[in-house]
Amino acid sequence: MKRDYYEVLGVSRDVDEAALKKAYRKVARETHPDRNPDDASAEARFKEASEAFRVLSDADARRRYDRMGHAAFESTGPGGFDPSNMGSVADLFEGLFGSFAQRRRRATGRDLTYDLSVTFEEAALGAERVVRIRKPVVCETCDGSGAAPGTDVHTCKRCGGTGEVRVQRRLFAAARPCPDCGGRGTIPETPCADCGGTGHVRRETEVRITIPAGVEDGAVQSLRGGGEEGPGGAGDLHVTVRVKPHPLFERRGVDVLCTAVVSFPEAALGTDVDVPTLGGKVTMKLPAGTQSGKVFRLRGKGIAAYGGVAKGDQLVTVMVEVPEKVTRRQRRLLEELAAEMGTETHPQRSGFLEKLKDLFE
Question: d(Cα 201, Cα 203) in Å, to the nearest integer?
Answer without folding.
Answer: 6
